[in-house]
Amino acid sequence: MSSPRALSPCLALLLSVVLALATLIGGSVVPVWAEFQGVDYTLTNQDGQDFSGQNLAQTSFAGAQGRGASFAGADLHGAIFTQAAFPKADFSGANLSDVLMDKVDFSGADFHNALLRGVIASGSSFAGADVTGADFSDALIDRADQRSLCREASGTNPTTGVDTRLSLDCG
Questions:
Q1: How far is CA 57 from CA 21, 92, 107, in A?
Q2: End-to-end CA distance of the chain
Q3: Which residue from 17, 119, 126, 168 puts its CA 20 to 30 A from 147's CA?
Q4: Which of 111, 118, 101 is nearest to 167 (CA)?
Q5: Bridge-partner residues for 65, per DSSP?
């Protein structure tokens, strides 16, 4: 596993810009982004790593690679996954609430029974992802991804009791 690093000035600037833009457009922004205090795996290779069940709240995986990494049951709320690649990663049962995951490759990832409430996932790819029982309430997802996810979406999240298709606004 690559060693975590201190938050880079460049990433801090990016987070400030995201916070300012979201405030300007009237969106709600999770305070943890403004007060980043998690571990920093920015621009690291986490392919195949096992983070199962770990507390990774407010952790940065910005620009990281994590093909086949396991985050099953992990607490990732408020984390940053922007411009990263996590194909075939296992996020089953993970708490990804309020995560910034824009421009991320989640193709073939497992989000079975995961919480994705309030995520910002614009420009991300969920092609072939398993979202059975996932809760996407209040998530910002590109329309094309939303339609694609709705084709396969089913189940009810065991934690929130929310129907996956309803949380994706499948109609």
A1: 23, 16, 23
A2: 42
A3: 17
A4: 118
A5: 45, 85
**Vertex 169, ends 93 and 162: CA angle to 5°?**
40
pLDDT given for residue 87 in this prediction: 98
Rg over alpha carbons for the chain, rounded to the nearest Å, is 15
Residue 65: predicted pLDDT: 98
pLDDT mean for each 10 residues of the chain (171 residues)? 41 50 47 58 98 97 98 97 98 98 98 98 96 98 94 97 97 82
Number of alpha carbons in the 13 Å side-chain half-sphere of residue 5: 13
- Tokens describing residue 1: 């596993």
Report yes or no: 100 and 84 within 8 Å, Cβ to Cβ.
no
Separation of alpha carbons 150 and 135, rounded Å: 12
Q: What whole-number distance in Å separates Cα of residue 87 and Cα of residue 4?
A: 21
Closest CA to 140 of 97, 105, 111: 97
**Distance between CA 5 and CA 57 in Å, rounded?**
16
Look at residue 6 in the predicted model and tell me its pLDDT: 39
What domains does the chain contain, in order, with CATH numbers? 1-171 (2.160.20.80)
